[in-house]
Amino acid sequence: MAHQTSDLRVNPSDETIRLGPLVVRFLLTGDNSTGSIAAFELIVPGAQRLAAPAHSHDHYEETIYGIDGVLTWTVDGKQIDVGPGQALCIPRGAIHRFDNSSNQDVRALCVITPAAIGPQYFRESAEVINAAAGGPPDRAKMTEIMLRHGLTPAPPQPQA
Known about the structure:
This protein is mainly beta and 160 residues long. Helix content is 14%, strand content 37%.
């Protein structure tokens, strides 16, 4: 099958989704890549953490590339700082989450291979996170959304 170069364009899936203070800006989805890759820019303001529960996914790898600032990822209990020009591949099945422990905003590129998740997961999560108005999101609703989109929430951990 020949490809249609007339359909090629930069950021074909340009969509910005706000999840509380975090911003996800989709650049590519599986629809743009015959399912091989999804890519989005993640912006995490200073002193913010992932509102959704730590989680794993069995159907894709997630690779993080640091652009600005340092994001601290906890992967299977190990803390790993990812700064500008650094990349971290989170393997399938690894429980992970992130925190921005500095006052500097962080920008990172997140690449999902294959493209098993897309903007719909983030739109649905944003509804629950934004409804919490800065408080903890409804864990049952978040868990239902995560499971439906192929993410497995980790059991709640005591907060340090």
